[in-house]
Amino acid sequence: MNILVTNDDGILAPALRALRSELAALGRVVVVAPDRDQSATSHSLTLHRPFRIHRHEADIYSVDGTPTDCVVCAWYGLLEAPPDLVISGINHGPNMGEDVFYSGTVAAAIEGAMQGSPALSVSLATRELTDFVAPASFVARLARRVMERGLPRRRLLNVNIPFRPWEEIRGVAVTTLGSRVYRDTLVRKVDPRGRDYYWIGGEDPVWDPREGTDFNAVHEGWISVTPLKLDLTDEPAVDTVQEWNLQK
């Protein structure tokens, strides 16, 4: 079995080593990751400049591009055959609720699902320094289950793991996407030459604590597993908008 591992934290992210080690028992593990941090790049592709692929050692490559570029490169050039499973992560920080639309981690898994592979995006809900051994071991067990049971076409699992001692994690909860209150702001600064520049920043996110959501599960100490599908069509709204009798 060929397993493609990527991320948006970059080729030097320590989670990659732990994940590669734990997945080795399942088959060949190929790492194709960005050469630098590509957080919040969403599903962007590099279209207006060439990029380079660097081979670090056998089955480990970095790409001068986005997480989505990494999956496309692996699918259409680096691997002799399409991967049997795509795993994106383990991200250093959560990817829950509407943040999945910004996340390069989730986007890489989505690209894997678009190309026809079962896919997982995995995040550890902390930005503190930590090791990823126990989370990586869980991902390997989940990967084995996915390969045994399969996923429907164009589906993926978005996984968020609480940051707490492993013995304090209560188990696994299958969840829905939560919703957070956005308080991002545009921060204006002035450089030494008197020119304005800007940061998108703001307060830490505040989440709606509804039961059954990814945020609530992680907050309560459960590993959140959220099945996602690629079809965003709002089926009930199709009939509603049909009733508008739109004309050209």
Automatic annotation (TrEMBL):
Transmembrane portions of the chain: none
UniProt xrefs under InterPro entries: SurE, SurE-like_Pase/nucleotidase, SurE-like_sf
NCBIfam families assigned to the protein according to its UniProt record, in alphabetical order: PRK00346.1-3 (NF001489), PRK00346.1-4 (NF001490), surE (TIGR00087)
GO cellular component terms, semicolon-separated: cytoplasm
Protein name per UniProt: 5'-nucleotidase SurE
Cofactor needs: Mg(2+); a divalent metal cation
Major location category of this protein: cytoplasm
Keyword Cytoplasm: yes
Pfam families: SurE (PF01975)
Residue ranges of domain Survival protein SurE-like phosphatase/nucleotidase in the record: 3-183
